Amino acid sequence: MSTSTLTAPKLSIGPIALDVPVVLAPMAGITNTAFRRLCREFGAGLYVSEMITSRALVERTPETMRLITHHPSETPRSIQLYGVDPATMATAARILVDEDHTDHIDMNFGCPVPKVTRKGGGAALPWKLDLFREIVESVVDAAGDIPVTVKMRKGIDTDHLTYLEAARAAEGAGVKAIALHARTAADFYSGHADWSAIATLKETITSIPVLGNGDIWSGEDALRMVDETGCDGVVVGRGCLGRPWLFGDLAAAFRVRSGELTADEAVGLRAAPSLGDVARTLRRHTELLAEFFGDEDRACRDIRKHVAWYLKGYPVGHEVRAGLSTVKTLEAMDEILATLDWSAPYPGADAEGPRGRAGSPKNPSLPDRWLESRSLADASVRADIAEAELHHSGG
């Protein structure tokens, strides 16, 4: 299985020109340096860090300072910042810029986790449009020449949509792109993303790129989203879990769309990994995790959550899957991988499609009386919202 370094239609986010209009979505515990490096080996794009909490960054907690460290091979460097206080977010942005930690800052306003929305953070925050605008303006100002983008959801639920007003505010504040996960907080990750909302956002925001997120499982899905919505690029999250080669597929698909390749020419660039290819990639991922953590045992523990995603659809028995899910050393992993039939071909549709936990629709948890006003005028609520700054991600 070969990787692709070929170019495709470009997407510009401020001064950053991307070879393909593809962005890796931040995912907690997933999009660390190891996974980002692995994805880069298969295709071009913008690879965003897992979410960094602004308060932890300002306090310089050791784990946070490690998470904002990029490998020398990573360029452009991208960090997603999360917070609920404009001053803290601005201070965090200045740290990232003044100490040369990043080339791009993304802001998370899409987290649907109840512990966050219950305090008014994440996907609940844009409902308070004044606070949202204040946070975005403070980060754009602090970032200076470093481009800032925003990732959000449609809103809290279908009766309390926020994305159009928030997008206009973000555009006015000077962000360089807006990404929309076309679900509400109430949807969590269930059902189908509402791509029509991406189309509406694209019609509304005309001066900067609009990126679509939600239900991108293949190159064909990405092209269909662009064709149906007019969006300028795609943000890929759960679709690449256990499938880092998806980024090579996306690059090939976009090159076909641009006319740089014919469909027949692209066939050789599309991934159809044998079980041996998967085994090598799983092993490579674990090696990169060991380098990232500086600890082989921790790397082996971390890779366990990826095993089912990598092996989805392949003829691998329960005993092998269980062994890989409890492996403690690379040597032990090698012994288990050696028992696989490396010649087993790509299983096609069985290895594709949705992955990760979708959850089910739910009534979002919100602060008392949160929906009564679009303005954060109550100081007690402002104090309460500070508790939303927890180590949760999503969007």
From TrEMBL:
The keyword Signal does not apply. The keyword Transit peptide does not apply. Its EC number is 1.3.1.-. Residues 348-371 are annotated as: Disordered. Its cofactor is FMN. One of its GO terms (molecular function) is oxidoreductase activity. Keywords: Flavoprotein, FMN, NADP, Oxidoreductase, tRNA processing. SUPFAM superfamilies: FMN-linked oxidoreductases. InterPro entries: Aldolase_TIM, DUS-like_FMN-bd, DusB-like, tRNA-dHydroUridine_Synthase_C, tRNA_hU_synthase_CS. It holds the Pfam family Dus. It comes from the Bacteria. Residues 24-334 form the DUS-like FMN-binding domain. PROSITE patterns: UPF0034. This is tRNA dihydrouridine synthase DusB. It comes from Herbiconiux daphne. The gene is dusB.
